[in-house]
Amino acid sequence: MQLIECVPNFSEGRDPHIIKQITDAVEAVEGVRLLNVDPGKATNRTVVTFVGEPERVIEAAYQAIKKAGEVIDMSKHTGEHPRMGATDVCPLIPISNISMEETAEYAKRLAERVGTELNLPVYLYEYAQPDNSRSNLSVIRAGEYEGFFKKIKQPEWKPDFGPTEFDARRGATVIGARDFLVAYNVNLNTTSVRRANSIAFDVREAGRVMREGDPVTGKIITDAKGKPRSIPGSLKSVKAIGWYIEEYGIAQISMNLTNIEVTPVHKAFDEVCIKANERGIRVTGSELVGLIPLKSMLDAGRYFLAKQQRSTGVSEKELIRIAIKSMGLDELAPFHPEERIIEYLLKDKAGSKLIGMSLADFADETASESPAPGGGSISAYVGALGASLAAMVANLSSHKRGWDDRWKEFSGWAERGQHFKNELVRLVDQDTLAFNQIMTAFALPKATDEEKTARTEAIQQATKLAIEVPFQVMKAAYQSMEVIRAMAETGNPNSVTDAGVAALCARTAVLGAFMNVKVNATGYNDKTYLQEILNEGEALQQMAIDREAEIIALVNGKIG
User: Fold this and answer.
1) Which CATH architecture has domain 182-343?
2) Pairing assessment for the beta strands 182-188 and 250-257 based on DSSP bridges
3) Active-site positions?
4) Which CATH architecture has domain 3-177?
5) pTM here?
């Protein structure tokens, strides 16, 4: 499935009734999932995020733009954020199985429809705009709403679609395709916009204009062509301005991180801290506008733990907690990861998930009359427990008094343990899903030859999955034994028995999963495939048995 994200910004952040009318228009389009609605009172602006297949997304965007033009009156709008229209900007962002070029074509289609059917001036930007001189949003929006009555009449600023008359009520809009962008504000212990802007100029890629003498009032220095020369800022792929937020009584550095691989959120935060400190100003926290990828939060958590010389091999939940606290993302309002991290919002919440159950509920579900979860899911979970114990020993070793110079060594082992734990936990549910697919396939109709053929094919596909999932359990559990052995041999000696129990768990996972591979193999017709996977399974099983014996010998040798 192709997925794109749409993040329109509407010039209303104070009236929840108006905002809801716009989001209702989005949700009325079948197949579109509304992920986030983020209003700001001081900016008088709401950022809305939704995802879906391209055709559905551009339909939802069109309906939202139409509704915004009906319920927002730009002639009465005020706010801290630059703006030019009721729907100020509407970017499309490729998420899954779609190229930027394809996404840009959808943006052009949407822009043409808005311009033609809604009679609204529309400008293309970023990857959807073929003219580089007018592809930058800030350049297009320069002059803002108040200045556009004259600007739109200039030949070089003729809209890409729609009339050349500026609409007093609706303004104009900008539609385009861009990379994933993180909107991020850093809070300062000052009310001075001038000082906030100075910090923004220090860090943003565009930097500041060069001047003679006084850096604020001095004469601008130009190049041979008469264009102002600039002093670049310290952060690549960052746009930034300073502003005052009356709602909070503070100044902020408002940043757009346009390439979080080049400048991640944690790097931007730390750099603003450094530049603010140089000017006698303190950073008190920060604020995320809209959504953020999971990787950004995990990378931030690891970064701040590493600065403390603490193990980064902790759980996903703990990494996110460290990121939130380190950057003060909860200073102005609670930060709920399940509402702000895009992968969490995209998770399929349908159906019962074993990994979301309590230990007691999971045991009860296993003990019930239902055949699933069964031995396959239990094997995966036992393997996950073994990897968890290995990660625990690594983390204890990383923090052991007197071993401070080895924290990075054990942090690496802990990260590997967490990786195998996560993979095996994922396979707990996958094994039950594979079993359910087999049951569904057997329940298909078989009255006609065509139905019989389709049913047989579905059964074979489901059976192959039911072989491959426990085989993945075997591989992950066996690979985790490398971490377990290292912890038994070099880890905290007070936890050596934990490494021993981990080895027992890993061996059980491998042998238990192989039983499931073999029993499901009896129903699969491709004998060549079966021979290969069974041979490899036999080898894995024997290696797991040998490795467990080796680890247990190490453990017994240490405990006497």
Assistant:
1) 2-Layer Sandwich (3.30)
2) antiparallel
3) 81, 431
4) 2-Layer Sandwich (3.30)
5) 0.79
